[in-house]
Amino acid sequence: MKILVTGGAGFIASHIVDRFIEEGHEVVVVDNLSTGQRRNINAAANFYQADIQGRWLERVFRRERPAVVCHHAAQIDVRRSVQDPFFDAQVNVMGTLKVFQNAVKYGVRKVIFASSGGAVYGEPQLLPVSEDHPTRPTSPYGINKAIGDEYLRYFRDSCGLEYVSLRYANVYGPRQDGNGEAGVVGIFSQKMLNGDQPVINGNGRQTRDFIYVDDIVEANVAALTKTAHGIYNVGTGQETTINELFGILAKLINPAVREVHGPAKKGEQQRIALDAGRLQRELEWETKVPLQDGLAKTVEYYRQTVRTLST
Questions:
Q1: How does pLDDT run across 190-225, given as a tens digit for each residue?
Q2: Do 113 and 56 share a structural domain?
Q3: What is the spatial distance between Cα 183 and Cα 175, in angstroms, rounded to a whole number?
Q4: What residues have CB less than 8 Å from 247, skipping those under 6 apart?
Q5: Most C-beta atoms within 10 A of its C-beta, which of 33, 75, 124, 234?
Q6: SS3 category, 265
Q7: Catalytic residue of the set 141, 151, 163, 232
Q8: What is the count of structural domains for the chain?
Q9: 239 with 197: CB under 8 angstroms?
Q10: Which pairing describes strands 207-208 and 68-71: parallel, antiparallel, or unpaired?
């Protein structure tokens, strides 16, 4: 099967590309390399350096004729979305809409969409949050991910485009950017390894549902290979405070590092954990990597990365 993966040079999608290729699929990657890294691209993939907002996107669809699109290209920084909501909408609404329109035009059978369970629901009324929970996002990023879900529903109803929207919890693991774009695990890990002081935003009691990237990959494989449609949460159902995360990473890297707090960030969600029961029941998926084990694997990756950059 031919699969087009947008954002395939990025943290999450590059792992998905690797797994699709391992499964014997033909994979086409589209990435503008604004945040993705060329070194993440599997050599067996057919790579186009192109922006989802640009003219080249339709040329890729016309030339490659993929059966499935796995759409991960996005503006992923929640704080940037607060500072510049227009730019976020350009990429995450208009760019996403171009992907979906081309999917319809060129006969794509299914779209797998990387949505956000950590942003679309807003402050939860009940934890863990199920897919039935109202969407009340607290940031433009969350608003625009919810819009992507609605466009997919529209294209399915009007054009018959099948889709699976995977609402990810807070994903971490190897290849995650540790330089501030996104991902508190990567930011804290690299700062600790470099001897710099990480700063916790606010009081650190805000919670996140941290899920290892391999479990996200398995959700995408299930969405590809099993009969599924609609919206699925992808998370562990467990809350972890940022202070708790800091403590685990400090024990793994440098137990002497101090817990330092800074101002809270505007638009930051206070609590979240996702109920992935529907994904477990319908697609026979389950989380396999406990937080402690996933963080140990991730820290080891950053140890190698920091060592490589410093030599």
A1: 999 999 999 999 999 999 999 999 999 999 999 998
A2: yes
A3: 11
A4: 259
A5: 234
A6: coil
A7: 141
A8: 2
A9: no
A10: unpaired
